[in-house]
Design goal:
Keywords: Coiled coil, Disulfide bond, Endoplasmic reticulum, Signal. Pfam families: PRKCSH-like, PRKCSH_1. By secondary structure, this protein is an alpha+beta fold. Among the domains are: 102 residues, no CATH class; 109 residues, Cation-dependent Mannose-6-phosphate Receptor, Chain A (Distorted Sandwich). The protein is 40% helix and 14% strand. The protein is built from 10 helices and 14 strands. The chain has an 8-stranded mixed β-sheet. A two-stranded antiparallel ribbon has the order 1-2. A two-stranded antiparallel ribbon has the order 3-4. The chain binds alpha-D-mannopyranose. The site of alpha-D-mannopyranose has 7 residues, from loops.
């Protein structure tokens, strides 16, 4: 038989469709995708799409499989690997396995797969299109609303960043001012301290001189047992504790070596003897005193150790006049009271209490204190701000998405309640599994990385290296994001032992392109 002309073939094909199908109008070669129609030319032999062989055009859709790839039987079930194209006018064209063709089940919404059977297929394409349209619109609306929130998050993140930068600058200025204040405070403080230190040292020196003076007098009076205002060899010899060579007798010669002479007056005692003996010297036990009552004590004998010694400042002549003893006492007491500041401070020195500041020192210290307090307050503030800066740096070190759209997650935790456990994810930190019936919580992962596919890295995040599973791997969690109006964990599963999967809805995952799609676009699903 001769090949029919292209026009004839087309008419013939349409006729066949109308006669054999009965269900749905077929506008193209049965079962062929629109994009491949050009490969099927009725006036030309057909070359299998895998180019394995060329056959006469009549062999196409003749219910006998010729091509290995099944491309010669797009409209029949003859080839096990063939694919039938449902045109599904008004909806979305789909490919189905060709063995679905004529199996008595309506697979295409236009019913074109059952053209050769008696099964009546309702055309559900319009209904499907409407449903699909509604779903697409709902999805678009969700993404639109989500994107609006996402934009707020991004704007907030930008505002926070610039606010922190601004604050950082302010703080740097404040630190400079505070340091200047500190320097200003330090000068008067140092001046005050130096002045006080000098005063303190002077007074200490005066006091030490007085104490030494008194000790010398007391020791001299103690040694001068005959009251002749001289310490002689025999008087010092009684103090055998001063004999360094203690095994032998404390000889006259040894005593004379200490005194430097046969006897010394108070001044010589002060300059040459006192320092030699003061460390070893011990007072002799006092002689027994008569009972004080009822007879008053006789006047102490001349030169008694109980009598105060003359002041060192008095001349030798005066010292040699025992009759002046009372005047000397008086002078001594006068001398003592003439330096009240020193005596006053004596108490402080013993107490280790600093002496009272003078008015000028007090004023300087007050200024310094004030400046220091201000500085300390500012320094406290600075520490706080430095902490804030550190937090900020830590936060800006976190990858919150190309536009900071995941910045709202910083320092936030979210729970998902499941029958047995509460799952808690603390974003960019860790994830826990908390048993509801008591028992200790288990860390199922620590923040690891964004783990979505290369083209959509921010689709997922990974929490890894959690508590090790018994006889298994360390626990881990993958969080998959999808568009939602609120930040919310909506599902947690354990698809594989100790590997957890969470679905999390967030505006941050909403897509501007989905939000901007027109609701009428269609596409072919394969
Ligand atoms: C606990 C939970 C489970 C986990 C088992 C593994 O019961 O952490 O999620 O599968 O341990 O032993």
């Amino acid at each position: 038989m001769m090949f029919p002309s292209y026009v004839n073939l087309l008419v013939f094909s349409c006729l066949l469709t109308l006669i054999a199908g009965g269900n749905i109008e077929q506008t193209a070669l049965r079962g062929v995708q629109t994009s491949l129609l050009s490969m099927y030319v009725p006036s030309k032999p057909f070359t299998c799409l895998d180019r394995s062989m060329t056959i006469p055009y009549e062999f196409v859709n003749d219910d006998y499989c010729d091509c290995r790839d099944g491309s010669d039987e797009p409209g029949t079930s003859a080839c096990p690997n063939g694919r039938f194209f449902c045109e599904n006018k008004g909806y979305v064209g789909t490919l189905i396995p060709s063995h679905f063709v004529g199996d008595g089940i309506c697979d295409c919404c236009d019913g074109s797969d059952e053209y050769e059977t008696n099964v009546v297929c309702n055309n559900t394409c319009f209904e499907l299109a409407q449903r699909n349209q509604a779903e697409r619109e709902a999805k678009r609306a969700l993404h639109e609303a989500g994107v609006a929130k996402k934009k707020e998050i991004i704007a907030h993140s930008i505002a926070i960043k610039s606010e922190r930068q601004k604050r950082l600058k302010e703080l740097e200025n404040e630190i400079q001012v505070a340091e200047k204040l500190k320097r200003q405070a330090e000068a008067p403080e140092k001046e005050a301290k130096d002045k006080y230190q000098k005063l303190w040292e002077e007074q200490r020196a005066k006091h030490e001189a007085i104490v030494r003076n008194r000790e010398i007098r007391e020791m001299f009076a103690d040694l001068d047992t005959n009251g002749d205002s001289l310490v002689s060899i025999d008087e010092l010899q009684k103090h055998t504790e001063l004999d360094l060579d203690s095994e032998n007798e404390f000889t006259n010669e040894e005593v004379r070596t200490i005194l430097g002479a046969d006897s010394v007056n108070l001044n010589d005692f002060n300059t040459t003897v006192f320092d030699q003996i003061s460390n070893s010297y011990k007072k002799l036990p006092e002689p027994p005193r008569p009972t004080p009552e009822p007879t008053p004590l006789p006047e102490p004998s001349q030169g008694s150790f109980a009598t105060p010694s003359p002041p060192l400042e008095t001349s030798d002549d005066e010292q040699n006049k025992p009759s002046h003893r009372h005047e000397e006492d008086h002078e001594n007491s006068q001398h003592s009271s003439s330096i009240p500041t020193s005596l006053e401070h004596e108490k402080h020195i013993h107490d280790d209490t600093p002496p009272e500041y003078d008015d000028e020192t007090k004023r300087l210290i007050q200024i310094a204190d004030h400046a220091r307090n201000e500085f300390n307050a500012i320094e406290g503030k600075i520490l706080n701000i430095k902490q804030q800066i550190e937090d900020l740096k830590k936060q800006s070190g976190v990858d919150t998405g190309p536009q900071g759209e995941y910045s709202a997650f910083i320092d936030q935790c979210y729970d998902y309640e499941e029958r047995e456990y509460t799952y808690r994810v603390c974003m960019f930190k860790d994830a826990k599994q908390i048993p509801k019936g008591g028992g200790s919580e288990v860390t199922i992962g620590y923040w690891d990385s964004w783990s979505g596919p290369t083209e959509n890295k921010y689709l997922r995040m990974k929490y890894a290296n959690g508590a090790t599973c018994w006889n298994g791997p360390p626990r881990s969690l993958t969080v998959t994001f999808r568009c939602g109006i609120e930040h919310k964990a909506v599902d947690v599963r354990e698809p594989s032992r100790c590997e957890y999967a969470m679905i999390f809805e967030t505006p941050s995952a909403c897509d501007e392109t989905v939000a901007g799609t027109t609701s009428h676009s269609t596409h072919v699903e394969f």
